[in-house]
Amino acid sequence: MPTTASMSLSCVPGSTVTAFPYCDYWQNTVDVCGPVTPKEKKKECLCKQPVIDALYGCESEYRLCFLDHDMDSGQEEAISLWHSVCDTFVTVPITTLPVSSLTTTRDLSKCLEGVKDACSSAMIIGKQCATLTDNSAKFSSCMCDPQNIRNDYTCEYLVDVSCNDKTADTSTMVLYSMCPNFDSVIASVTLQPST
After folding, report:
1. What is the dihedral of CA 60, 65, 67, 72, to 10 degrees?
2. pTM of the model
């Protein structure tokens, strides 16, 4: 089956995955076999050893890319569906690839635990400040309080960068454009995840 699509995912720091050949093969199989009719021809297209290899291999690629098991259930559902369609159709024994085990995992709960209080405080202060919208000076003073800026920055920016492995830009934050003291306040803020 020709490979026509190629996955482009950002893996977490520490992952060694740079390509997704099994996931690419599976996606291309779906693209090619999906529109095939009638049902028996679709089975001929899908029910092959390289296809089940791609499903198991893709599960390994996801695990090794994200250093967690978050994608396992979706892949295992696809594998189960393949077996329900193909086990009675194939006439040769099917083998399965082993799924990679993780030796290191990303513990997102510990990372988020370190910012839980900051996020909660930012929401509470935001609600309190919202009651002052009829007085723009008081509203601005409330929102630009240094502790509120630190909480909001920790919750909105540092969580994306440190916990979710996303690229973030402080200039897109609401308080960045609202508070003239934003840069000076966040200069000393760092994320301290719980251990």
Report:
1. -40
2. 0.55
